C-alpha cells in the first residue's frame, strides 16, 4: 500500500507546483472600410530548381534530289560559291605566274580542268547533303556556313569582275 499512496500523492503535488503563465496578443485595428483579413501562417518554402527544357529536335533535312538541288535548296549557291573560290584563286595564281589572262587560260586547256574540278567538287558537296547532314551542323567559330556563303558570293563577283576587266582592257590584269 505504500506504493499506491506515493503514486497518488505525486500528481497532487505536481498540480500545486505548476507555474502560471500569460499570453499577450497584439493586433492592428483595420482602417475604416477595410475588411478584417486573417493572414495564413507562412511556412518556409524550398528553393525551386529551374531545369531548362531540352532543346527542340533538329528539323529533318530532306535528302530528296529535287529538294537538295532546288533553287532555294542548300546545294546550288554553295557549290557555285566553292567553284568560284577555287576558280578565282587559281585564275589569279596562273595570271601572276605566267601572265595569261582568264580567256587565254580557258583556251589553253582550262575547260578540261574546269569540268574535272566541277565534277569532283559537286560530288564532294552533295554526298553529305544526301546523307542528311545539314549545312549548319558543321559550322562553328570563324568558319560558319554564312561565312562560306558570303565568301562564295564575293568570289563569284570577283571572278566575273576579273573576266570583265580583262575583256575591256584586252590583256591580263597584272
TrEMBL record:
Major location (coarse): membrane
Compositional bias ranges of the Pro residues kind: 50-59
Keywords: Membrane, Transmembrane, Transmembrane helix
One Gene Ontology cellular component annotation held by this UniProt entry: chloroplast thylakoid membrane
Taxonomy, superkingdom: Eukaryota
Subcellular location, record wording: Membrane
Topology versus the membrane: Multi-pass membrane protein
Region (Disordered): 26-60
Protein's name according to its UniProt entry: Chlorophyll A-B binding protein
